[in-house]
Specification:
Layout (H helix, E strand, L loop, with lengths): L1 H4 L6 H11 L8 H8 L14
Length: 52
């Protein structure tokens, strides 16, 4: 809770809500996966190159 509250813009209510929603954060293999699950990363739409 202390770490989340130290983030700019996250108060006690927001930190408590994040902890309640995430539950056991150890289920995420990386911070990027957690951020993606939370929906706080921008979407990237990219198609692979094809050789003709």
């Amino acid at each position: 809770m202390e770490i989340l509250v130290s983030v700019l813009g996250v108060g006690e209510l927001g930190a408590a809500t994040l902890i309640a929603e995430i539950g056991d954060f150890k289920g995420f293999s990386s911070g990027n996966k957690l951020a993606s699950w939370l929906g706080i990363v921008p979407n990237v739409y990219q198609s692979a190159s094809r050789l003709v």
